[in-house]
Protein: Beta-lactamase
Amino acid sequence: MGIIRKTGHRISLKQIASGFGAAVFLFALPVMCLAEPNMAATLMQDSPLLMKKAGIPGLSIAVIHNNAIQWTHEFGVADKEKNTPVTAQTLFSAASLSKPVFAYIVLQLSDEGKIDLDTPLFQYWPNEITDDPRLKSITARIVLSHRTGFPDWRPHGGQLKIHFQPGERFSYSGEGYVYLQKVIEYIEKKPLADSAQDRVFGPLQMVHSTFFSHTVPETAKGYDDTGAPHDPFESTGNAAYSLQTTAEDYALFLKAVLDGKGLKPATLRMMESPQSTLTMLCTYCTDQPPAPPSSTLFWGLGWGIERIGGHSYLWHWGDNIFYKAFVAMDLQHHDAMVYFTNSQNGLAIAPSLLKETLGINPLSLKWLGYTMLTP
Structure:
């Protein structure tokens, strides 16, 4: 059952719909919250319809309002063949929603003086991952804002190349995050999965989250755009894409970010400030010519940034082929939404969910270039 969470109360949708429950709810909450039951009821009604239209077997979603986890729910199945329902404990591949969590860890280390964001990484970890001398100008700040010049991923078995001067411009890169991960693991003397447990999952009570991708019974099976099943893939902990989590767990992380928990105020402001300016021509821009910069789309430290109507939103998408995810946060109102799916078509429903939960139609969705349903 989906729930509304507000000032410690747990109110079911059935209670909201009943006369007495609705009356108590109306008197208990301020006027600004009266729309919340309508939002939850609409999502309960519309989400299964959107999933059916997009061919999405399973969905897990969480909504934050005024910095409180207001509503969570699970829809559909984690395994169509076994008819296993998605539950609050079902793990989804977070894909690139891993990156903001890793950035949070790096920024904590910066606050502790263990890494300087503007010191070349080779000074911490001298291993040569490429023979290009420009490697020695890459810093943690450049990695977190996707300005390394690396491709997203090198060809299988191929050599890692730097395509432009690091720091020059934006080009989304998973390779950069893996490079920084190796540096952090060298500094911390332990694998990323352990650092994440010690610094994020443990303190925030994210009990259903791990950076080590191993198949467990609670992991949702992925499905391609034809509906064919694909088993979850296994990998060692990878900062760019290997986080497995639930919507409610990830909402705990979002709440920590909105609270400013775990980071110095100046570091939090830096994370939320533009470091790179995007263009509408490309996401992976290693071989693209210079293009006019966007006036509203940027990248911070670990997060995309979009300016909408005077508000700043942090956002990110996740794409591990058969798993798709999206997250957005309104920094002014301390509202957020995150969802995970086990489908190659999972981003098709992002416009509808963002419109219903945050009231926005972000340009970042167009920038991503996926086929999406019109809300």
Q: What stands out?
A: DSSP finds eleven helices and 15 strands in the chain. The longest strand covers residues 68-79.
